[in-house]
Amino acid sequence: xxxxxxxxxxxxxxxxxxxxxxxxxxxxxxxxxxxxxxxxxxxxxxxxxxxxxxxxxxxxxxxxxxxxxxxxxxxxxxxxxxxxxxxxxxxxxxxxxxxxxxxxxxxxxxxxxxxxxxxxxxxxxxxxxxxxxxxxxxxxxxxxxxxxxxxxxxxxxxxxxxxxxxxxxxxxxxxxxxxxxxxxxxxxxxxxxxxxxxxxxxxxxxxxxxxxxxxxxxxxxxxxxxxxxxxxxxxxxxxxxxxxxxxxxxxxxxxxxxxxxxxxxxxxxxxxxxxxxxxxxxxxxxxxxxxxxxxxxx
Length: 298
Hints:
Blueprint (H helix, E strand, L loop, with lengths): L3 H9 L7 E4 L3 E4 L3 E2 L15 H13 L4 E3 L8 H10 L7 E6 L1 E2 L7 E2 L3 H15 L4 E6 L8 H13 L3 E7 L3 H8 L6 E3 L10 H10 L2 E2 L16 H8 L4 H12 L12 H9 L7 H8 L1 H4 L1
Parallel strand pairs: 3-4, 4-5, 5-8, 8-9, 9-10, 10-11
Antiparallel strand pairs: 1-2, 6-7
Helix pairs in contact: 2-3, 4-5, 8-9
């Protein structure tokens, strides 16, 4: 019979039920991360409405066993990175903080691509300063700016890597051909594309990541509530397993591929704990097949 202390410790490390993935052959992370976009204000702009709760969310995420936090200089801008450092620095051993550069933010809900080398260098330096790091474990090009040669953008990240400011490089919202081209310039260890049980537009990119053993980091993994319609297959499976539709959506992602690394975000501890509890769900094969046809049927 387990002691109360052992049971409490098991609950604290609940995220570990998602299993592990090794990014770039040396960053061992739990396959359920935390996306830190939502710990900012409305329109991903400015301060959150409750900064103290945002700090509690980050600290609770680490308590629950999450050791991969994804952010970007454009979240706020700057606010998300500053709160992460305030909440968690000095960082516990094994915590991987991934950030991104490549956007400018003229206002709430406004995003302008900027892949100019001088901007990317400045963005990286700013992230290092705000996160209080000497090196960023995973730095992702937030978008490939079509106005700037990809060789210039990726070459800048390669230079930053050579300078010891970046350990590994990832991409976001790219096609298979763009990944392949990037790989001719610099090693790529991760791809972050929009993907969920109801949005499988990046299926070919996921398949490529599996083949190349790259981390696939789906953003918008809960599809902003689209998974929870009363007559949807997600809701039916959720009712069978006494879980929420969001938990089923996350459990489906974790079961879909061994390279999948979902990063659901929230500004509330209760929602965080609900998301992490999804790692304990097991979806039967027939239910996986039913959910597998959801995107094609919708």
